[in-house]
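Hmm, how's this folded?
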Amino acid sequence: MEPHFSEHLVEAGIDEAGRGCYAGPVVAASVILPADFYHPLLNDSKKLKPKDRYMLREVIEREAISFSYAVVDHNWIDRINILQATYKAMHEAVSKLSVLPSILLVDGNRFKPYPGIKHTCIVGGDGKFASIAAASIIAKTYRDDLMIELHQRYPMYAWDKNKGYGSAAHRKAIETYGLCEYHRKSFAISPVQIKLDL
């Protein structure tokens, strides 16, 4: 894990969580870390145990120069598509930072340029650069919190476990109960309708 992309620039890592989910929002986070930030467990959020993610979130929030996250809900996803909704969340997260970064380090291979700030896309960046790994942890944990809240309203979909991803249990529940208000209707997830030959 590299501590930074450039020694001379104020860099903000950006990552998202929930892009491929069947339900709920997409959440993006942006984090500016001190140049000397180090934690031995810091890594791509997907490779961490939940308890380590939440522990690291506390460390990041305490020690970051600035951090933020933004939530774009299922309605926006259906209205403008998941890619544009992801860009919207990322841009909102950057706009909430209390310090203006010189460069944005974006996990992935595509990004809609943010006005006035240069960026670089890094495939697998959440496993390569500390600020992107930190952003992945912030985005993932806050989105998980939201899905656990939504689980209280719709426990049949087991969002406390699958967080809205298309697990076998989630797909089975959609077949049984259909879609609820928080499902992304623009995704091809509706239960298969069997046509009867009459």
Remarks:
- The longest strand covers residues 11-17.
- DSSP finds six helices and five strands in the chain.
